[in-house]
Amino acid sequence: MNEVKAMMAGNVWKIVVAVGDTVEEDQDIVILESMKMEIPIAAEESGVVKEIKVQEGDFVNEGDIIAIIES
Amino acid sequence: MSYIDELNKRIEHIKKGGHEKYHIKNEEKGKLFVRKRLELLFDDGMDIEDAFFANCMDDSLPSDGVVTGIGKINGQDVCVMANDSTVKAGSWGKRTVEKILRIQETAMTLELPMIYLVDSAGARITDQIEMFPGRRGAGRIFHNQIKLSGRVPQICLLFGPSAAGGAYIPAFCDVVVMVDGNASMYLGSPRMAEKVIGEKVTLEEMGGAKMHCSVSGVGDVLVKTEPDAISYARRYLSYFPKSFREKPRVREAKEVKEFEKSITEIIPENQNAPFNMYDFINRIIDEDSFCEIKKKFAPELITGLSRIDGRSVGIIANQPRMKGGVLFPDSADKAAKFIQLCDAFNIPLLFLMDVPGFMIGTKVERAGIIRHGAKMLASMSEATVPKISVIVRKAYGAGLYAMAGPAFEPDAVLALPTASIAVMGPEAAVNAVYANKIAELPEEERQAFIKQKQDEYRDDIDIYRLASEMVIDAVIEPNKLRDELAKRYAIYDAKNTVFTERKHGVYPV
């Protein structure tokens, strides 16, 4: 089980995977919008997306859990 | 027994280090014997060794648990101290400390690089009066390190624990390489933490190599094995002169690695879209010449040694792929130390800018981002080595300043045609200036108004306008950037300036 966390504060701009998807290490899970930049948040390990804890438009703080990947 | 036999017998005994069971224990952990480590470190073994017989009246303490001497790395003499963890877990007695002090003082006199191969449990409590508090006690090791700092390169290879006071050896080195799984640093052990403050924590969580190389930043380079750590040190030193009095040796130039996509093709047109700065770096430096420092710590800023046309160049680059390349307290710290390192040893600097600015918000203000950012500005500003800044894309706000913007006496500010310099980006600026006006407008007119103002703003900060105002020194075609840099570093090699006259600044730490 691996938690994907926001590396900085920002708004969830796009969620680019769905629950049940198989993802590779370094594959983008969501893209935040912060400091007027697109901030991709990637999986640290390969696995299956078990849960996505945010919705597009949500504000997330640094360290908030965005998704859970089951390896 | 003849004198010679007696001598040889003693040498044989001491060379073997501690009891066999400790050798076996080390082997199980993937740890090499100290003399094997030194064999790998030097071109051709250690040339001279002093105080080999330290504490030889006690059979159980060969060399008093530390090997000190001089050998060659890449043909260059270097001083070394290496703990022997088969001798009382590499702990420090009176003679251990004295040996370390002497080799440091030799490094000082001869102005040679100093390498610390650390694998030690810390002070021998039984010997504390002799080794801890006095003038030639362990504190002096750190005093010497601080004195050596910036005079000669100091490298720490951490193979095992570096506990309590001993943890300051890595802290005062220029670079700390940690072997994953075996290396650790901590002031108080987990056992002590539980007893004294009630915290239950594992050694790996509290002071492990991964943690230090990615979270605390006390470690710089995480490696899998001891030979990896040793080969990193040999490679790292090849970018440096032996002391601050000299310049790094210019090596044979290598071509840039060939890639399918050119620089122009890897930079996205949309300023806000991420791209991978490593791809950019690899297209301007000599093939395979990037030697990264602090890869896992504050990855939104890349710092590493490289060669351009055979010359050592220290690169500080924003990484838009991580945190948008925004500067944080940790990235500013990382940059400050790296800049000091390069400046101390006459390694020219290259700033690759694609920076939206410093991070804003409660979290970073509470962490003192202004203070940390000031450190980066101070060391960048003070650096008198050749400095070139390249504006790859954005250079917004104080980001422009921190990355060696025009006001900080870089030898040149070069812009790619994709460059954009401003207090802030068009989206933020229009919002800042016209927020009230936008709110007053009928909803259907807002988008058109915003777009018009953003376009006007873009025209206003057009890179050719800045070139016309001589804010930047040249606009360079991306595919010609490497050649431009090579020419300029060769010419700027003549630079010889002093920042200012004083004892030292009062640094924002």
UniProtKB/TrEMBL annotation, chain A:
Gene3D superfamilies: 2.40.50.100. InterPro entries: Biotin_Carboxyl_Carrier/Decarb, Biotin_lipoyl, Single_hybrid_motif. CDD domains: biotinyl_domain (cd06850). Coiled coil: none annotated. Residues 1-70 form the Lipoyl-binding domain. Keywords: Biotin. It holds the Pfam family Biotin_lipoyl. PANTHER family: OXALOACETATE DECARBOXYLASE ALPHA CHAIN. This is Acetyl-CoA carboxylase biotin carboxyl carrier protein subunit. It comes from Ornithinibacillus halotolerans.
From TrEMBL, chain B:
InterPro entries: AcCoA_carboxyl_beta, ClpP/crotonase-like_dom_sf, COA_CT_C, COA_CT_N, MCCB/AccD1-like. Coiled coil: none annotated. One of its GO terms (molecular function) is methylcrotonoyl-CoA carboxylase activity. It holds the Pfam family Carboxyl_trans. Residues 258-504 form the CoA carboxyltransferase C-terminal domain. GO terms for cellular component: methylcrotonoyl-CoA carboxylase complex. This is Carboxylase YngE. It comes from Ornithinibacillus halotolerans.
